[in-house]
Amino acid sequence: MGTTTTLTASDGHTLSAYMAGAPDAPRALVVMQEIFGVNHHIRAVCDGFAADGYRVVAPALFDRAERDVELAYDAQGVQTGLRLRAAIPADRTLLDVVAAADALGGGKVGIIGYCWGGTVAWMAAAQTSAFAAAIGWYGGGIAAQNALVPRCPVQLHFGETDGSIPLSDIAAIRAAHPDVEILTYPNAGHGFGCSERDSFNAAATQLARIRSLAFLGRHL
């Protein structure tokens, strides 16, 4: 089990964050939330990586618009999450992401994000120098930012039946970034890695997690 801490971004904004893992863990990882906040699922993800030997932190990105946000996986939660996301400029979000990386101390730091967080991880890989490796799971906004050039190795995971990320988007990302490892999963929809969502796919989640840990192990 982790603890809640407070981070300070370079512009002076303070935000809460969930931190897990031993302070002397050999690897460091920033976990990026979905549009549902740093909720039970994201905390569980952090605890899982901590059990794998990572020092982990998940910054509460919504704190710039509204604090203590934990949304349910339903239509209202989606609407609220989208509204909060739209209220925060992307460059301010990246300041919070870098603050999270800084909180993990020196050495190499990785980043992994889910849903909105997958897109944020992509942006952080290209627009900051804070990370040695980046992973995105079903980042729906990546194709729209296909012109970004990552500064570190990137691995992306997509479900082949994701109604919000068409296969044509995945193909466009692959064509523009041949050095990015892009992995797809049959019969997997959006949010396939969250056991609290109807789209959960246990087999795809297990394989994507194994691949993610192997990727992080190679680069951190």
What general form does the structure show? globular
- Overall pLDDT, averaged? 96
CATH topology: Rossmann fold
For the terminal residues, how far apart are their CA atoms? 23 Å
What class do helices, strands and sheet pairing give? alpha/beta
Number of helices: 6
Which CATH architecture?
3-Layer(aba) Sandwich
- Main β-sheet: number of strands, strand sense, barrel status? 8 strands, mixed
Record the strand order, biggest sheet: 1-2-4-3-5-6-7-8
According to CATH, the homologous superfamily is Alpha/Beta hydrolase fold, catalytic domain
Gyration radius (Cα, Å) is 16 Å
| Total individual domains | 1
Strand content: 15-25%
* Low-pLDDT sequence parts: none
SSE order in H/E notation? EEEHEHHEHEEHEH
Task: Give the proportion of residues in helices.
Answer: 25-40%
GO molecular function: hydrolase activity
Protein name: Dienelactone hydrolase family protein
Domain Dienelactone hydrolase: 16-219
InterPro entries: AB_hydrolase_fold (IPR029058), Dienelactn_hydro (IPR002925), Dienelactone_hydrolase-like (IPR051049)
Concise synopsis of the structure shown:
InterPro entries: AB_hydrolase_fold, Dienelactn_hydro, Dienelactone_hydrolase-like. The chain is α/β, with parallel strands linked by helices and 220 residues long.
List the helices and strands and how they pair.
Layout: E1 3-8, E2 14-20, E3 27-32, H1 40-51, E4 54-59, H2 75-86, H3 90-103, E5 109-114, H4 116-127, E6 133-137, E7 154-159, H5 167-176, E8 181-185, H6 202-219
Parallel strand pairs: 3-4, 3-5, 5-6, 6-7, 7-8
Antiparallel strand pairs: 1-2, 2-4
